[in-house]
Protein backbone atom coordinates (compact mmCIF):
# COMPACT_ATOMS: atom_id res chain seq x y z
CA UNK A 1 0.00 0.00 0.00
CA UNK A 2 1.18 3.52 -0.82
CA UNK A 3 -0.17 6.58 1.01
CA UNK A 4 0.62 10.13 -0.11
CA UNK A 5 0.70 13.10 2.27
CA UNK A 6 0.41 16.83 1.80
CA UNK A 7 3.43 17.79 3.90
CA UNK A 8 2.75 21.51 3.39
CA UNK A 9 -0.87 21.54 4.60
CA UNK A 10 -2.06 22.33 8.13
CA UNK A 11 -1.27 24.71 10.97
CA UNK A 12 1.75 22.70 12.12
CA UNK A 13 3.15 21.59 8.77
CA UNK A 14 5.55 20.26 7.80
CA UNK A 15 6.91 19.12 11.19
CA UNK A 16 3.69 17.60 12.57
CA UNK A 17 3.01 15.78 9.30
CA UNK A 18 6.54 14.39 9.14
CA UNK A 19 6.47 13.29 12.79
CA UNK A 20 3.11 11.55 12.34
CA UNK A 21 4.22 9.83 9.15
CA UNK A 22 7.42 8.58 10.79
CA UNK A 23 5.40 7.09 13.65
CA UNK A 24 3.12 5.41 11.12
CA UNK A 25 6.10 4.15 9.09
CA UNK A 26 7.46 2.36 12.17
CA UNK A 27 4.06 0.88 12.99
CA UNK A 28 3.27 -0.29 9.45
CA UNK A 29 6.57 -1.15 7.72
CA UNK A 30 4.63 -2.83 4.91
CA UNK A 31 3.21 0.55 3.84
CA UNK A 32 5.09 3.09 1.71
CA UNK A 33 4.64 6.75 2.63
CA UNK A 34 5.19 9.61 0.18
CA UNK A 35 5.61 13.16 1.46
CA UNK A 36 4.64 15.89 -1.00
CA UNK A 37 6.59 19.02 -0.11
CA UNK A 38 9.36 21.38 -1.08
CA UNK A 39 12.90 20.06 -0.94
CA UNK A 40 14.06 22.67 1.57
CA UNK A 41 11.15 22.02 3.94
CA UNK A 42 11.00 18.24 3.97
CA UNK A 43 14.28 16.63 2.95
CA UNK A 44 16.52 17.89 5.81
CA UNK A 45 14.12 16.51 8.41
CA UNK A 46 13.53 13.24 6.60
CA UNK A 47 17.19 12.46 5.86
CA UNK A 48 17.97 12.51 9.57
CA UNK A 49 15.58 9.60 10.19
CA UNK A 50 16.69 7.10 7.55
CA UNK A 51 13.31 5.37 7.19
CA UNK A 52 13.29 3.02 4.18
CA UNK A 53 9.52 3.20 3.59
CA UNK A 54 9.29 7.01 3.55
CA UNK A 55 10.14 9.03 0.46
CA UNK A 56 9.74 12.55 -0.92
CA UNK A 57 7.87 13.68 -4.01
CA UNK A 58 9.19 17.24 -4.49
CA UNK A 59 6.75 20.03 -5.36
CA UNK A 60 7.35 23.74 -5.85
CA UNK A 61 4.06 25.16 -4.56
CA UNK A 62 1.48 24.82 -1.82
CA UNK A 63 -2.00 26.23 -1.27
CA UNK A 64 -2.44 28.60 1.66
CA UNK A 65 -5.44 28.35 3.99
CA UNK A 66 -6.83 31.74 2.93
CA UNK A 67 -6.65 31.19 -0.84
CA UNK A 68 -9.80 30.91 -2.96
CA UNK A 69 -10.14 27.14 -3.49
CA UNK A 70 -11.03 26.70 -7.17
CA UNK A 71 -8.69 29.44 -8.38
CA UNK A 72 -5.82 28.01 -6.32
CA UNK A 73 -6.38 24.47 -7.62
CA UNK A 74 -6.42 25.65 -11.24
CA UNK A 75 -3.40 27.93 -10.94
CA UNK A 76 -1.12 25.91 -8.68
CA UNK A 77 -0.70 22.71 -10.67
CA UNK A 78 2.51 21.77 -8.85
CA UNK A 79 1.13 22.32 -5.35
CA UNK A 80 1.29 19.50 -2.81
CA UNK A 81 -2.51 19.26 -2.61
CA UNK A 82 -3.12 19.17 -6.37
CA UNK A 83 -0.31 16.70 -7.05
CA UNK A 84 -1.62 14.42 -4.28
CA UNK A 85 -5.09 14.26 -5.81
CA UNK A 86 -3.52 13.60 -9.20
CA UNK A 87 -1.46 10.74 -7.73
CA UNK A 88 -4.50 8.91 -6.33
CA UNK A 89 -6.40 9.43 -9.57
CA UNK A 90 -3.58 7.84 -11.58
CA UNK A 91 -3.02 5.01 -9.07
CA UNK A 92 0.42 6.27 -8.05
CA UNK A 93 -0.93 6.31 -4.48
CA UNK A 94 -3.69 4.27 -2.86
CA UNK A 95 -4.83 7.14 -0.62
CA UNK A 96 -4.09 10.83 -0.12
CA UNK A 97 -4.21 12.75 3.17
CA UNK A 98 -4.12 16.52 3.63
CA UNK A 99 -4.63 18.88 6.58
CA UNK A 100 -4.59 21.86 4.22
CA UNK A 101 -7.23 24.15 2.72
CA UNK A 102 -10.55 22.26 3.01
CA UNK A 103 -12.23 24.01 0.10
CA UNK A 104 -9.23 23.43 -2.14
CA UNK A 105 -9.14 19.73 -1.25
CA UNK A 106 -12.83 19.38 -2.07
CA UNK A 107 -12.35 21.26 -5.35
CA UNK A 108 -9.33 19.14 -6.30
CA UNK A 109 -11.21 15.99 -5.35
CA UNK A 110 -14.04 16.89 -7.71
CA UNK A 111 -12.03 18.42 -10.55
CA UNK A 112 -9.08 16.01 -10.52
CA UNK A 113 -9.85 12.78 -8.66
CA UNK A 114 -13.48 12.51 -9.77
CA UNK A 115 -16.73 11.11 -8.37
CA UNK A 116 -18.02 7.55 -8.10
CA UNK A 117 -20.57 6.83 -10.81
CA UNK A 118 -24.01 7.34 -9.29
CA UNK A 119 -22.87 9.86 -6.67
CA UNK A 120 -23.97 13.41 -7.43
CA UNK A 121 -22.02 15.22 -4.71
CA UNK A 122 -19.26 13.97 -2.37
CA UNK A 123 -19.63 14.48 1.38
CA UNK A 124 -17.08 15.57 3.96
CA UNK A 125 -17.54 13.08 6.80
CA UNK A 126 -15.69 13.62 10.11
CA UNK A 127 -16.20 11.46 13.19
CA UNK A 128 -17.76 13.41 16.04
CA UNK A 129 -16.68 12.34 19.54
CA UNK A 130 -19.56 11.24 21.78
CA UNK A 131 -19.94 10.69 25.52
CA UNK A 132 -20.16 6.95 24.83
CA UNK A 133 -16.58 7.03 23.53
CA UNK A 134 -17.66 5.35 20.30
CA UNK A 135 -17.82 8.31 17.92
CA UNK A 136 -20.37 9.17 15.25
CA UNK A 137 -19.82 9.74 11.52
CA UNK A 138 -21.45 12.98 10.35
CA UNK A 139 -21.98 13.77 6.67
CA UNK A 140 -22.01 16.30 5.17
CA UNK A 141 -20.29 19.10 7.09
CA UNK A 142 -19.60 21.52 4.26
CA UNK A 143 -18.80 19.94 0.91
CA UNK A 144 -22.33 20.54 -0.40
CA UNK A 145 -24.28 23.34 1.37
CA UNK A 146 -27.23 23.25 -1.06
CA UNK A 147 -28.15 19.57 -0.89
CA UNK A 148 -31.14 17.79 -2.39
CA UNK A 149 -32.97 14.83 -0.90
CA UNK A 150 -31.23 12.49 -3.34
CA UNK A 151 -27.86 13.68 -2.03
CA UNK A 152 -28.87 12.92 1.57
CA UNK A 153 -29.99 9.48 0.48
CA UNK A 154 -26.55 8.88 -1.05
CA UNK A 155 -24.87 10.16 2.12
CA UNK A 156 -26.86 7.67 4.20
CA UNK A 157 -25.72 4.77 2.03
CA UNK A 158 -22.06 5.83 1.89
CA UNK A 159 -21.96 6.64 5.59
CA UNK A 160 -23.41 3.30 6.58
CA UNK A 161 -20.84 1.41 4.50
CA UNK A 162 -17.92 3.49 5.81
CA UNK A 163 -19.05 3.09 9.42
CA UNK A 164 -19.27 -0.68 8.99
CA UNK A 165 -16.02 -1.21 7.09
CA UNK A 166 -13.69 1.41 8.59
CA UNK A 167 -15.16 2.31 11.97
CA UNK A 168 -16.08 -1.36 12.49
CA UNK A 169 -19.64 -0.77 13.70
CA UNK A 170 -22.02 -3.72 13.49
CA UNK A 171 -25.21 -2.68 11.68
CA UNK A 172 -24.59 1.09 11.95
CA UNK A 173 -27.63 3.13 13.01
CA UNK A 174 -28.32 5.96 10.55
CA UNK A 175 -30.04 9.13 11.77
CA UNK A 176 -31.27 12.25 9.96
CA UNK A 177 -30.56 15.64 11.59
CA UNK A 178 -33.85 17.45 12.18
CA UNK A 179 -35.70 19.83 14.50
CA UNK A 180 -37.76 17.01 16.01
CA UNK A 181 -37.80 13.22 16.17
CA UNK A 182 -41.28 12.80 14.65
CA UNK A 183 -41.42 11.58 11.06
CA UNK A 184 -43.41 14.57 9.81
CA UNK A 185 -41.07 17.23 11.24
CA UNK A 186 -38.69 19.45 9.30
CA UNK A 187 -38.39 21.11 5.92
CA UNK A 188 -39.47 19.73 2.58
CA UNK A 189 -35.85 18.56 2.14
CA UNK A 190 -35.72 16.51 5.34
CA UNK A 191 -39.23 15.09 4.85
CA UNK A 192 -38.36 13.86 1.36
CA UNK A 193 -34.96 12.58 2.52
CA UNK A 194 -36.65 10.69 5.36
CA UNK A 195 -38.87 8.84 2.89
CA UNK A 196 -35.94 8.01 0.57
CA UNK A 197 -33.57 6.83 3.32
CA UNK A 198 -36.28 4.50 4.61
CA UNK A 199 -36.07 2.62 1.32
CA UNK A 200 -32.31 1.98 1.58
CA UNK A 201 -30.72 -1.26 2.85
CA UNK A 202 -29.48 0.53 5.99
CA UNK A 203 -30.55 0.55 9.64
CA UNK A 204 -32.45 3.86 9.65
CA UNK A 205 -33.28 5.04 13.16
CA UNK A 206 -35.20 8.17 12.12
CA UNK A 207 -34.80 11.84 12.94
CA UNK A 208 -32.21 13.06 15.45
CA UNK A 209 -32.24 16.41 17.25
CA UNK A 210 -29.00 18.39 17.61
CA UNK A 211 -29.15 18.26 21.41
CA UNK A 212 -28.86 14.46 21.30
CA UNK A 213 -25.96 14.25 18.84
CA UNK A 214 -23.14 13.92 21.41
CA UNK A 215 -25.07 11.27 23.34
CA UNK A 216 -24.40 8.74 20.59
CA UNK A 217 -28.03 8.13 19.61
CA UNK A 218 -26.88 7.00 16.16
CA UNK A 219 -23.66 5.89 14.46
CA UNK A 220 -24.12 7.87 11.23
CA UNK A 221 -25.76 11.31 11.12
CA UNK A 222 -26.96 12.61 7.76
CA UNK A 223 -27.48 16.31 7.05
CA UNK A 224 -26.97 18.93 4.35
CA UNK A 225 -23.57 20.65 4.31
CA UNK A 226 -24.92 23.97 5.58
CA UNK A 227 -26.52 22.49 8.69
CA UNK A 228 -23.64 20.09 9.21
CA UNK A 229 -21.03 22.83 9.10
CA UNK A 230 -22.95 24.88 11.68
CA UNK A 231 -23.26 21.79 13.88
CA UNK A 232 -19.54 21.07 13.56
CA UNK A 233 -18.36 24.59 14.39
CA UNK A 234 -20.86 25.05 17.20
CA UNK A 235 -19.77 21.75 18.76
CA UNK A 236 -16.08 22.70 18.49
CA UNK A 237 -16.81 26.12 19.97
CA UNK A 238 -18.81 24.78 22.89
CA UNK A 239 -16.15 22.17 23.66
CA UNK A 240 -13.35 24.76 23.62
CA UNK A 241 -15.32 27.17 25.81
CA UNK A 242 -16.19 24.40 28.25
CA UNK A 243 -12.61 23.23 28.72
CA UNK A 244 -11.24 26.78 28.88
CA UNK A 245 -13.80 27.72 31.53
CA UNK A 246 -13.11 24.52 33.48
CA UNK A 247 -9.39 25.27 33.47
CA UNK A 248 -10.02 28.78 34.77
CA UNK A 249 -12.22 27.50 37.58
CA UNK A 250 -9.78 24.80 38.67
CA UNK A 251 -6.92 27.31 38.94
CA UNK A 252 -8.93 30.08 40.64
CA UNK A 253 -8.26 29.12 44.30
CA UNK A 254 -5.97 26.83 46.26
CA UNK A 255 -8.89 24.54 47.18
CA UNK A 256 -9.90 24.31 43.52
CA UNK A 257 -6.34 23.37 42.59
CA UNK A 258 -6.41 20.54 45.13
CA UNK A 259 -9.72 19.33 43.70
CA UNK A 260 -8.27 19.50 40.20
CA UNK A 261 -5.35 17.29 41.27
CA UNK A 262 -7.79 14.64 42.51
CA UNK A 263 -9.97 14.83 39.41
CA UNK A 264 -7.12 15.08 36.89
CA UNK A 265 -7.02 11.39 35.79
CA UNK A 266 -10.76 11.33 35.15
CA UNK A 267 -10.70 14.68 33.36
CA UNK A 268 -7.88 13.50 31.11
CA UNK A 269 -9.85 10.38 30.16
CA UNK A 270 -12.90 12.50 29.40
CA UNK A 271 -10.88 14.99 27.33
CA UNK A 272 -9.28 12.15 25.39
CA UNK A 273 -12.67 10.60 24.59
CA UNK A 274 -13.84 13.96 23.16
CA UNK A 275 -10.66 14.65 21.18
CA UNK A 276 -10.90 14.76 17.37
CA UNK A 277 -7.25 13.64 17.15
CA UNK A 278 -8.29 10.11 18.14
CA UNK A 279 -10.35 9.73 14.95
CA UNK A 280 -7.79 10.84 12.36
CA UNK A 281 -9.53 12.69 9.56
CA UNK A 282 -12.68 13.17 7.54
CA UNK A 283 -12.96 11.16 4.32
CA UNK A 284 -14.37 12.80 1.22
CA UNK A 285 -16.93 10.08 0.55
CA UNK A 286 -18.14 9.83 -3.01
CA UNK A 287 -14.79 10.20 -4.78
CA UNK A 288 -13.40 7.35 -6.88
CA UNK A 289 -10.26 7.14 -4.76
CA UNK A 290 -9.62 7.53 -0.99
CA UNK A 291 -9.00 11.19 -0.08
CA UNK A 292 -8.95 12.16 3.61
CA UNK A 293 -9.09 15.65 5.11
CA UNK A 294 -7.18 15.82 8.38
CA UNK A 295 -8.02 18.60 10.85
CA UNK A 296 -6.17 21.85 10.12
CA UNK A 297 -4.57 21.86 13.58
CA UNK A 298 -3.57 18.18 13.43
CA UNK A 299 -0.56 17.17 15.47
CA UNK A 300 1.54 14.03 14.96
CA UNK A 301 -1.01 11.84 16.76
CA UNK A 302 -3.85 13.03 14.53
CA UNK A 303 -1.73 12.38 11.43
CA UNK A 304 -0.92 8.89 12.71
CA UNK A 305 -4.62 8.13 13.25
CA UNK A 306 -5.43 9.46 9.78
CA UNK A 307 -3.03 6.83 8.41
CA UNK A 308 -4.80 4.11 10.39
CA UNK A 309 -8.11 5.27 8.92
CA UNK A 310 -6.72 5.42 5.38
CA UNK A 311 -5.33 1.88 5.62
CA UNK A 312 -8.74 0.52 6.62
CA UNK A 313 -10.40 2.60 3.91
CA UNK A 314 -8.20 0.94 1.27
CA UNK A 315 -7.96 -2.58 2.74
CA UNK A 316 -11.70 -3.02 3.17
CA UNK A 317 -12.71 -1.85 -0.26
CA UNK A 318 -15.10 0.89 0.83
CA UNK A 319 -15.32 2.54 -2.59
CA UNK A 320 -15.94 -0.77 -4.34
CA UNK A 321 -18.71 -1.60 -1.86
CA UNK A 322 -20.37 1.79 -2.39
CA UNK A 323 -20.26 1.28 -6.16
CA UNK A 324 -21.79 -2.19 -5.83
CA UNK A 325 -24.65 -0.91 -3.67
CA UNK A 326 -25.37 1.88 -6.14
CA UNK A 327 -25.51 -0.62 -9.01
CA UNK A 328 -28.07 -2.68 -7.09
CA UNK A 329 -30.25 0.43 -6.98
TrEMBL record:
The gene is plsX. It comes from the Bacteria. This is Phosphate acyltransferase. Pathway: Lipid metabolism; phospholipid metabolism. Coiled coil: none annotated. GO terms for molecular function: phosphate:acyl-[acyl carrier protein] acyltransferase activity. It comes from Salinithrix halophila. Homodimer. Probably interacts with PlsY. The keyword Transferase applies. Keywords: Acyltransferase, Cytoplasm, Lipid biosynthesis, Lipid metabolism, Phospholipid biosynthesis, Phospholipid metabolism, Transferase. HAMAP family: PlsX. NCBIfam families: plsX (TIGR00182). Belongs to the PlsX family. Its main location: cytoplasm. The keyword Lipid biosynthesis applies.
Amino acid sequence: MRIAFDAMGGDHAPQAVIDGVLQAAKTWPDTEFVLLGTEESVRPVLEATGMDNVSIHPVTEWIEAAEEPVRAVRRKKDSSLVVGCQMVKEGAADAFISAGNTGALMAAGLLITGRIQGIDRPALAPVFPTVTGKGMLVLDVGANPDAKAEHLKQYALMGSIFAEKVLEYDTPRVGLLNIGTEEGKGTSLTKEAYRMIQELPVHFSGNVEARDVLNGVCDVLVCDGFSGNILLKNTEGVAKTFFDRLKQEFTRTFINKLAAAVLKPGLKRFASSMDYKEHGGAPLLGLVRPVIKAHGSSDARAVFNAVRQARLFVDRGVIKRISEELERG
